[in-house]
Amino acid sequence: MSDVKKAPAYGTDSIKILSFIDHCRKRSGMWIGSVGEDGIHHLLRELVDNGVDEMVAGHATEMSVFLDGSNNTIIVKDNGRGIPFGKHKDTGTETLVEIFTTSFSGGKFDEENYQLSSGQNGVGLGVTNALSSELVVHSCRGKKLKSLRFLKGILQEEELTSVSFPSYTEIIFTPDPEIFGEAVFNVDRIKESLFQLSCLLPGKNFKLTVNPKGEAPAEVWDFIEAEYLTGLYTKNAPAEAPLFLYRQESKSISTIVSFSGAGQYRTESFMNLIPTTDDGSHVDGVMKALINSFKKLTGKVLTKSQIQYGLGLIVAGNYTAPVFKGQSKSKVADIRIEQAVYQDVYPGLYEALKAAPDFVKYLIAVIEAQSKVVDEFELKTSVSAIKDKVKGNKLPAKLRAVHNCSVDERELIICEGDSAGGGVTTARNPKFQEVLAIKGKILNPFKATKAQLLRSKEVSDIFVSVGGTEDTGTTLRCKKVFILTDADSDGAHITSLVASLFTVLFPSFIQKHELCILNTPLFTAVHGDNRAYGKDVVSAKQEFRRLHGKKLIPEIHRNKGLGEMSPAELVPVLKPGSRDSELLEWSDNSVLEMGRLMGNDMSVRREILKEQTKC
Question: What's the whole-model pTM score?
């Protein structure tokens, strides 16, 4: 008899319908991301943000935070309007209870009560209550004090009394050890958070009182700043004066951009007063403004990583209904905000950089020197890895290789696209012709570094297939390379890119061996099953008459690509004796001429390609 238990029947009784409180406790990570120290500080921030929104709306001037270290309990109090209480018109139940026990309830879903707020989803206070061992809320407004007490999110006591003192909100919160284990509040993190808020809300007063475990007296810190953002900058600024400093303040976006002689990248960012530790769209908007400013001033396209050298950024955004990545709100993910920040910051930042030409020149020189070091290291690493592949005969998966063939006899045909690669592979002579199909257009060798080129899979595959040259200290696999592309402007561009690659990476191959362009027909003359090809209409007709006589009058079609040609039609394109090929010859001006063709002036390349593909 088997000891295996029979699985219970799967029916409607198997489906669990959880309340909001139960779901928060059962799947707390979904709501706050972490059930350690980060988690309890996330919940503290929910309480703090409730009072901060009152400050932003102009209804509160002070906030106090008290930490009782003996039982890991925190008290947050603000002198705002108090959270509304009384029976709700839609549910008939107590509004304050709904706010702390249900999802998607709150006063911040529109702009009637708060034009800007950190809370958006109507879940913050409810999740905090659900994940507490005990939570008490006191809301005082209109000479009435409403008090609620919860245990593990469940209401235990409710009281309403008349009072004579001003309005306020006070929330007493103890994280539940069943959820958070031994995690306790970190005083330094609370101090940093309140300091940041004081810098973002100048003139508002934040007080932290900590009563640690034992008999030690309470410690008190007051945070109040007179100037917006200044404290954040001075606290973390390097000791030496910045080489460049730009400051901008507006209703929607404020930023301080500084560059120092130190290489460390420093950033602090906020959205609607929420610290966005992983930055996001608002910071991307400032970075885009920096990159485009340098591009306009110098003509150089810098990357984010390059421009971060010595950069310090403080970015504070204020936008309605920003989109965050996840409930933890550590990153802004809102392309609308990125575009708005860019448009706001770029004009002033560009003018400031334009007025500092010595700094711009210095930074570009530093970036280029740093990039050179990085590129040299990456180049050595990439070349070493590719050499290992060549020596180990680890050929690319897309290479249709020929193994029993001498280096002198072997030909490598480089074509574009899998469709063309399939036809060329069938049409080739498998005794000595290899085929490598590359995907699309490779990087422009005259605009990318050698290290960037070799990081590309297509370039690496070409390197290994050729086997390198005397330039790379590896052994050649072949001495004849043919470039085969479509007979249109795109094909000519790809041909130019591959030829440029050899010019930059393998100049000695062009000097000592054969790099050829296979000319493919642009037009086909067709009559029934009879076909002929030509580079233009006239040559296609002439070739048709030569092959099939003058009696037949063919139709002329413009070929779209190699992929449309059958293997039989491709055979004469590849076959020695019938193929039309051009040998690329090296001269003292080869690099200069190719650089002119493939450089930044696109009009030169456009005119040359147009001329080459003219019908």
Answer: 0.67
